[in-house]
């Protein structure tokens, strides 16, 4: 009987001790698992953010090259295509464009027969045939190719490695006139990846690729094309409709389980991928677990020893209860230590947000600002304490607030996950009321049951200014500042259409600088350029605001004069002759260069089908003025067709 009571007493004491042991190990395991998941989530967000930024900057670099080659192609189309012989003007044009474009080895032109015509690197260029290069053959065989981006090559003349980028040169009828191309320095693409290296975990791997698996730039990994083409990214993920997507615990660029992100550009043939081996993400976590393992083992052994003591001295219940209380206190202390570790992990995440280069603004579903990082403070001019809890409309113009609220409301949510929307451009507003353009990507997630939206914003004022300058280069003659031939003819056709519609008179004049070749031969092309700029300035000074002035090519200028008949055209022509005669160009030796122009003109007639009909008659009159001794005006009267 006594033995049975002893066994029951032992059992009653053993059950609480065993339960405490299981509870302790369960809490420790749960905290360790949560820390592991937090590390994986942080690595996933870092790779996704880096992939998006590298993609955006890669697209911006290609957009810059696209605009550059388009502008050069339009200039060549006006000049009747790629020059068959060395052309110093075209060479200087390429040199200027090369100087203004970062990350480009050289800019070069290829004739329709595949031979190099001009290069920004040397003049004249060696007659090398590149017809077998894909950047030429694709433009030759496909009239609608658009911007071509190819695999890295090695230059046959310089021996340097470059990424070819090209555009077709065609006239208005679509006739193939040659190819304008640029040699992009692969290090310029590699630098886009290096810029993000500080915000990525150690051991990351990243690359910029063509959709078929050819590497353009790699960091932290091999650029072996055969291996990349067989990787899951190019063999399984990209053949379908690919969007920016995160990969966790699965292979991406090789057969190693990784945490990463990839995306394919919707504008250019680009693929960007960033990954971190999952084993490296776990390494720090495992190291911490190994450091804590002895403490956990000691605690377990302590509980076992306590159980043995309780088993041996079960009659001393009070002492056993005190020992259990001390063990619980030790457990609470260790739980507090784990809580401190989790708070430290949260502090590291906040440090990442505070050191981000881009502005980060976090709002709830009611458009109230929850987080405002230092980059946002610098961008908008507010302190974080001033905007927390305020409505998001504080940071944007009134007309943009409603549209943005609707777009955020339509952003998809993933419970317990993350969804990043495609970047878009909007107008933002600083504290002083000034507006500026930003590129914003909005990500939405659920924190518990409450939607939270994370906006990553970048000030793109400088990029917009650069785009405006490129647009200006496409319509304005770079030497004289007046309309180039294409823009001038477009404006003139509009004036011609208005004249026909309202039965208004219209006149055109063509001006040609006399003996301009002698000026270039005697004083040099730089003096010839100064003369053309002075000529454009003097002509523009006597024109009305409605008149159109453009450079047709070389030393030849054109004018379209709305609501002007033959008498008005003759009067303006004589005035232009006088103004040019009175002009003088100071020379470096102290002398003065004076010059004259010859002018031919024509007025609108009933049979004129387009502006070229008027300019053909004006051109004939211009030749009459040249043959008649120069420095004079010849005007085609109505009916002299």
Please indicate the percent range of residues in DSSP E strands (runs of 2 or more).
15-25%
Estimate the mean pLDDT confidence.
85
Class per helix and strand makeup = alpha+beta
Number of beta-strand segments? 24
Morphology: elongated
Structure report:
With about 650 residues, the protein is of the alpha+beta class. The chain has three domains: about 1-355, Beta-Lactamase, CATH 3.30.450; about 360-465, PAS domain (Beta-Lactamase, 2-Layer Sandwich), CATH 3.30.450; about 475-635, Reverse transcriptase/Diguanylate cyclase domain (Alpha-Beta Plaits, 2-Layer Sandwich). Strands 1, 2, 3, 4, 5 and 6 form a six-stranded antiparallel beta sheet that branches. Strands 12, 13, 14, 15, 16 and 17 form a six-stranded antiparallel beta sheet that branches. Helix 1 (about 1-80) packs parallel to helix 8 and helix 7 (about 280-310) runs antiparallel to helix 8 (about 315-355). Residues about 415-420 have low confidence and may be disordered.
Annotation keywords:
641 residues; alpha+beta; Beta-Lactamase; Alpha-Beta Plaits; 6-stranded antiparallel sheet
Outline the fold blueprint.
Layout lengths: L1 H77 L9 H13 L3 E7 L5 E4 L14 H8 L6 E2 L3 E2 L6 E10 L5 E9 L1 H9 L10 E5 L5 E5 L5 H5 L2 H6 L7 E6 L7 E7 L6 E7 H35 L4 H38 L4 E6 L4 E4 L1 H7 L3 H4 L10 H12 L9 E2 L3 E6 L5 E13 L2 E10 L1 H15 L9 H18 L3 E8 L2 H8 L1 H17 L6 E6 L2 E7 L3 H17 L2 E2 L5 E2 L3 E7 L7 H17 L5 E4 L5
Parallel strand pairs: 23-24
Antiparallel strand pairs: 1-2, 1-6, 3-5, 4-5, 5-6, 7-8, 7-11, 9-10, 10-11, 12-13, 12-17, 14-16, 15-16, 16-17, 18-20, 18-23, 19-20, 21-22
Helix pairs in contact: 1-7, 1-8, 1-12, 7-8, 14-15
